[in-house]
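Target chain:
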Amino acid sequence: MKNVGRKTATLLVLVLLLAPVVRVAGQSKEPLPPPDSMTVWQARRTVAASIAVGYDGRFPITVDSGTFRFALDSFEFDGALHNGNREHFKVDLKGLEPLFAKKSRFRLGYVYVVTDAAGRDLPSPLNRLSYDSAVAASLAAALNRLRALAGDQATPLRDFPQRAATWRALPSKPPIPEEARAQRLLAEDAVKQNKPQEALNRYETGLELYPTWPQGYFNAALIAAELGFYADAVDHMQAYLELLPDAPDAQSARDQMVIWRHKAGQPDKK
């Protein structure tokens, strides 16, 4: 979709929403994860949800859920269309300072915001307020997680295309490492116990440890879609197809991605 009158802003600090549980695109709720166990994908979902359904203390802020685009070093999103115009925002993750949840007086009570050590706030209209300290702390942890990933040049996720090409060329595929296998076992157990969110987090933890794990991506994609995280489902299935482009179910997977992109509000790929 063509954006008219696009304005770019770089965000230095983000602050959070009014609800104690995050929601992505009106779909499944995901409990706020402990800061020290947050996967990259959890961090992205937490940040996207806080912006998409945020509140600035006066009126709701509407952001098109399909416009979030995450990379290792940055992410960007568009505001809702108003009078033919969209405001475009880009966040340089490397440019962020360490973030904290801060208690602040607001009207007749207190709220919590996310701020850096210098106390810099997010420019209007994306100021976020929360009456729950855990919500603000979780967003700060999510942004710090993404900031740390942006500064990690050795993360296996950074050179995934090269790793995928090397893996495809191997005549005999190695077994997944023991730490990733442990996450697979825990994910399978969570599925048996009907705990899909825990299963998804386990698969994603394994994928961070070992990105060339096709079945991990495939299973994560199906569970993410079940939970309503369609953008993540697309990303996971795309990685699966990059590893196994000629898999027997490759066309079925591509067809499913068309549906997920539509549900995520993403443009169709030609």
Notes: The helical segments are 40-52, 133-150, 160-169, 178-192, 196-209, 214-226, 230-243, 250-264. The beta strands are 7-10, 22-23, 29-30, 69-70, 74-78, 87-92, 99-106, 109-116.
